[in-house]
């Protein structure tokens, strides 16, 4: 295409979850509730694991950072999405779109590896309990989380730069509710081989490495639990990782459904629903999974509410 035959794109239009006008207000309230529950649940986890002295262990340190990335990832997507339900023109500027994509990638990559780190933490706790506080020391915890964020940031910069180094012209309608890689690549009028390669290598490497870590950790955990002779001991050991196993199954199950199904079975509607699930629904579900299935978190919440009520009465 000759340079004089197109106008360079300076803004994009997001089609949203649904283009039906009659669904905009109902969907606004549905996702407002989801985002409200996400904020409440994850802020509660962050607060409890920060102030309660009985939750100052590596497991809850990692849980706090999982809540941080869940909250941040949802916040990158939800506010703009909610605004678009109420306005007619769903526009986003070129640089706003690039920023949203970059921040989304930082937090989704961080979530993938924090879940892997949490699986490793449970492996050490159950398979090598005597060495637990040495292998997963406070220093190691900070190092693992710092590397997770650093890797997420550097990978997001490379992927975002490769996507937005392409030329966008004429069509600027993104068939999605946020700026995502696949619909952006589909809009480009330049060669997409390099960004597609970067994205494929990065995504496949991240998923394969994290899934191998999780599967290997839980394979050894199951073997260790089966070697425990008492049923009470097996039950107690299993309960320490049941919440994380549930969260991992939901998260990776959604990603694998979206990215491993044959291209001929892909549909825009199914991809949007899968995106809704891992960007908005899973961040809402994780605090519920870890609080409803965890006696320590429920006890910490009860203590926190009791202390807050007592403090309020003394005022």
UniProtKB/TrEMBL annotation:
It is found in: Cell membrane. It comes from the Eukaryota. InterPro entries: GPCR_Rhodpsn, GPCR_Rhodpsn_7TM, Olfact_rcpt. The chain crosses the membrane at residues 27-49, 101-120, 140-164, 207-226, 238-261, 273-292. Its main location: membrane. It is a multi-pass membrane protein. Signal peptide: none annotated. GO terms for molecular function: G protein-coupled receptor activity; olfactory receptor activity. Pfam families: 7tm_4 (PF13853). Keywords: Cell membrane, G-protein coupled receptor, Glycoprotein, Membrane, Olfaction, Receptor, Sensory transduction, Transducer, Transmembrane, Transmembrane helix. The keyword Secreted does not apply. Residues 41-290 form the G-protein coupled receptors family 1 profile domain. GO terms for cellular component: plasma membrane. Putative odorant or sperm cell receptor. Belongs to the G-protein coupled receptor 1 family. This is Olfactory receptor. It comes from Muntiacus reevesi (Reeves' muntjac).
